Amino acid sequence: MSKYSQTGLTMIELLVTISIVAILATMAAPSLREMVESNRLTALNNQLVSTLNYVRAEAIKRSFPVTMCVRNSTGSGCATSGGFENGWIVFVDCGNYGAVDATGCNYGPGNTNAAEEILLDTTPDFNGITITGTSSTAPTLRYKPNGGIAGISGSLTLATGATEYEQTLNLGSTPRYKIKIQSATGRIASCKVGTSGC
């Protein structure tokens, strides 16, 4: 007999180990999928909140109303239907009409009848995530140069307190996040549905 004994797993030990790993992987898969979806939803919520803060900041900085609306198929203007899951544009809304105009912006000497500038054109991946509200019209949101809300419609809806506008981000049919905009100051806040104060 050799003084070097052979070591390793028997076929039965190997099959038992593989079976245990397969069972654990099957149990972990739904949790992993939920974690991935939750992280994606959080990222999209943060992107939307960041855009709303950008709209408000640009209105203050430029001293012109700035509007955020659902983008049309080309990104050249606002859509008349659909929601922010289709993407959005942000533009300087000099005419205060909620539409991108080819003229009408007075940016100063030598540029007194300029086109309204599109500042941001975004098409995020909202696959499987919906933004819900009470209206079938395409949502728009307009900030005034003082940082307050100038105009709002569609999925950004009046909350029960009558002092905040509210939009819900859903995963499937389950509400996960609410974005609230104070009507007086235009300040934006986001909270996770089910947490205290949300």
Low-pLDDT segments, ≥5 res: 157-161
Task: Tell me what portion of residues adopts beta-strand conformation.
Answer: 25-35%
Shape estimate: elongated
SS-based class: alpha+beta
Account of the protein in words:
Residues 46-169 form the General secretion pathway GspH domain. It comes from Thiothrix litoralis. It is a single-pass membrane protein. The model is unreliable at 157-161 (pLDDT under 50). The protein is built from 1 helix and 10 strands, in the order H-E-E-E-E-E-E-E-E-E-E. Strand 8 and strand 9 (174-182) form a beta hairpin. The chain has 198 residues and is α+β, with helices and mostly antiparallel strands. The protein is elongated. It has one helix at 11-62, and strands at residues 66-70, 88-92, 118-122, 129-132, 140-143, 149-153, 157-158, 164-171, 174-182, 188-192. The strands form 2 sheets. The chain has a 5-stranded antiparallel beta sheet with strand order 3-2-1-5-6, with helices on one face. Strands 4, 7, 8, 9 and 10 form a 5-stranded antiparallel beta sheet that branches.
Any key phrases for this structure?
198 residues, alpha+beta, 5-stranded antiparallel sheet, elongated, Pilin-like, transmembrane helix
